[in-house]
Each structure stands twice: as C-alpha cells, then as structure tokens.
Fold:
Amino acid sequence: MSAVPESRVWPAEGLARVPYWVYQDDGIYAREQERIYRGATWNFLGLEAELPAAGDFKTTFVGEMPVVVTRDEKGALNCFENRCAHRGALLCLKDRGSAKEIACVYHNWTYDLRGNLTSIAFRRGIKGQGGMPDDAQPESQAPRKLRVTVFCGLMFATLSEATPPFERYVGPEVAARIRRVMKEPVRVLGGYSQMLPSNWKLYFENVKDTYHASLLHLFFSTFRLNRLEQKGGVIVGGEGGSHVSFTMMKTDTSGDEYEKAGMRSVSGGYRLEAPQMLESVDEFGDGVTLQILTVFPGFVLQQIMNCLAVRQVLPKGAGRTELVWTGFGYASDDGKMTERRVKQANLVGPSGYISLEDGAATGFVQRGVQGAAAHASVVEMGGRGVESGESRVTETSVRGLWQQYRRHMSL
Amino acid sequence: MDIELQLAVENLFARYVHALDDGRLEEWPEFFADDGRYRITTAENFERDLPLPIIYADSRAMLRDRVSALRHANIYEAQRYRHAVSSVLVERIDPRAVRATSNFQVVRVMHTGESTLFASGRYLDRIRLSGKLVQFEERIVVLDSRSVDTLLAIPL
Structure:
C-alpha cells in the first residue's frame, strides 16, 4: 500500500476545502487506483444491452485496469482482467465482438468466457522435448475475476468482496431514480468519447455541481431549462459519492433572479429559429425535465428531456480523463421517438449546447492550479455539510463526493 | 469524367472550408439547401448503423441556431481550424443531384499556439445543382476516430 506523504494533509476546514494537490499528485493517483478502483466500489462497465447474445464481449477499464466483459453460454455476465496469466499481454484486442473462447495472440494461451485458463500451447512440449515442469502453476497468475452486478440493465463490477450490494451502496433514493430512467429494455443509439484535459475528479465534481449548471451553460438559462428558481432537488446517496439532481418543468417564467444579479448567462433576445429540437414528451409522467445521477466513482446517468445517455468516467493519468458516452432509447421507441432523441443529442457530448463547456471548464481548473498545490478550492455553497435538499444553489453533492473519497483514501 | 461537374463540386468544397477556416461562420448555413441536412458522426456508429450524432441538423435554420449558439451562448477558447480536403470522387445521380465522397483532415490551432491534428475522416455528400446554385442537400461528416479532444465547437 503506497504511503501518503506528510505534505498531503487535508485542510482543517474539512469538506469545505479541496486541496489542489488532489488533482495533480501522481502518488495520490496511484493510491486511487488501488483503494478506489480496485477497492470496495462498483465500477460501471456498460449497458447490458451492449451484450445481447451468448458469446458477446466488450473490453473496457476499471480505473486503469483493462477488463473483458462477456456473456457466457449460460447467459451470465462475467468480467475479468484483460491480462494473460503467462506474460501479462492483453487477451482481447477488440473493442467488442462475439467469441466462443478467448486466446492470447502472444503464445495462444486460451480462456473460456468466464476467464478460466483452459489450455496452454505445448504445455507438455513436443515429442518429450520442452514444455513446462509438472509442478508449474501458471493458474496462480490467472487474470483476476471481478464480481458483476446488473442493476436495471446497468453493468457494474468490483474486485473487492467488501463492496456492499449495489442498492445499499447507492442508497434507496438514488436506486429509485435509476429505476425511473431504466424502466424498460433499452436500445443503444450509439456512442463516442471525449478526452478531457483534466483529472477525473474535476469532471465528476462538475457533474455533481448543480450550482454551475445555469451560470456556465447559457443555453439552459436562456431557454429556461434549468433556472435555479425552478422546482427540483438534490439527493445525496450512499456514502456521499452518489447523487441525483433533478429539475421540474417551469410553468411560471416570471422569475428574474438572474437578470437582477446581472449574470452573464442571461443575454437578451437570444432565440432559436428551429425550437422543434427542444420539443419533448413527458415520458416518465412526473414533469421532471432533467435528471443527472452519479454513482461513485465514475458513472453518470443522464435524462435531459428525451435525451438519455450513460457516461463512463475513465482516468488516464493524473491530468487526463476519457469520458465514454453511450446514447440510448427504449426497445419500444417508434421512429418519431428515436428522431426526437437524436435531435436532442445536440444538447450533449463534445458539441453539446449544454455540455460543450464542461470539457473546457475542468481543463481551466487543471491549468489554473498548476502553481497552487498548497492552496484549496472553496466549497461552501449550501453550507459545509452533506445533505439532500430542494435548492440547487448548493455544492452539497460535491462535498458528498469528497466525503466518500476521503474515506476510501484514508485522507 | 465530367470536368465541369468535378470543378463545381471542388469549388463548393473550397468555398466551404475557407469560410470555416476564416471564421466566417455566418456563411456556413448558406452552403446548404433550405431543407439541407448536416450530421457529424463516428465511423464506428456509421458502420454499425447507429443514429447517435455529435451534431445533427435537418434544416438551414438549425444550422443558423448552431452558429448563433457558438457566437452568443457557448463558451470555448479562441481557436481556428485549417481544413485539407482531398480525393474528391463525384458521381452524378440525376441531372440535378450528385453524390460526392472526399477525405478531410483538420488541424486545430489554439490561441496558446498549440497546433494539433484534431480530426480526420470522410465527407459523404449529396449535392443539389440548380442553375448556378450548388448546395449541400446532405453532408455527413464521418470521423475516423470515436474520440474527440476536449470539445468540438466550430463545425467541420
């Protein structure tokens, strides 16, 4: 277990301060890999709908650890390290596909779909020459198997036996809000990824930060999609690192808090020529137009009107993060509904009207704090604790993230 | 080969990339027909016939909205593109329409001086010819990579 240097002491203010070294330090990054990603957490692998048939597989990551996710002959989902027992080479080189078994290209050691080593080329040698000693135990270095849980069609994995059952891990309210969106079988509409020039936690904080949403993203506020005076709430779940924030459709547009405060994010007569893009249907029947949900350490479930997506946050070094987006609809969608979701996809992703800025903003922090490892950010909107509430002028779910993070990291 | 047709299409492409690379975004929607379609997707989505776009518009009005959001709403650091378009194949469908396939590479130049190969891919176009007017009925931008660095603000 890597030790934490003495200079890496959390500020006395607790959750109301986040020291900048936490986004920069390679030692902290290495400790996160062992204590968070390979520790007692549920790591998002993808949608179950990505692997519909027996033999289907995909490759992805748990933190930086490469993994293979398969559906075996019996229909069960498996996840194991993408590392050959022999020399450690990647077992599976494709992003996705279908197979009966998986063979390492290096020396043709072969595995079944559950990650069991089934054959070793020339183990007994050829004509009595070569081969392995009888007492060799190559299985001792077999790829590690992860525990897989599927919750409402979402696949998660953990290396630890200590990780609590998923529903307890996220808490009942966050679980209920997952059920709300994952209410029926889904259909994948496609995907892409975004390389962010920042530490993974800056992006995860950004998603939890309800305070920035209508201040950074003008598109939201101008079209009254998420003005802070609209009805909604923030719920912090589990140990703090999971959350859900939601906004109800606003019917009264008389609020003028932004205009009075002279905020940049409200500019006069900006209107869409083709507002059909924003025409949506209340498919959940509860008036919630926007729901953003996270599960520690790297899962986001998004409903923005009829635009649904999951996002997987993958660390790629202390200063780099890959954000993998998968858009989806329901298997029962008709052509009109799919067209609606596809049009509203303009709102999200690397060109998203309301998400384009996030890729850059987290990078602005990463660059801004380069000379300030000993300083800390101020996280006091909505107090200094971690509570659920109705206001979104709060950083409560950001503090929740740090509560769970510090517990895992012993910081 | 119909040289005049080839030149008309390549001229459209040249005017298109110069407008974008010079920052004349307001001219960009004018390269499309009124009901013109524009879509940026990845090769992976395209090959798997998955509809999720990075940008999607089915009218010139939606393209104008994109420009207006880039000018007035969205926040991104000052940057420029330099397009290189090559290997333009043109195929006449009927007297008023052609299909074209071409390659592109885009270098993104940030205000910091950082200059990188930002995108590469194919343009799959359907182009309408009516008199002197040559316009996109449909332009599908198929990115070779599934990954975009930081953000994609200015259209490709």
Observations:
- The longest strand of chain B covers residues 79-94.
- The domain at 3-143 of chain B is CATH 3.10.450.50 (Nuclear Transport Factor 2; Chain: A,).
- Chain B is about 25% helix and 45% strand.
- Chain B touches chain A at residues 40-42, 44-45, 48, 50-59, 61-62, 64-66, 68-69, 72-77, 146-153 (CB under 8 Å).
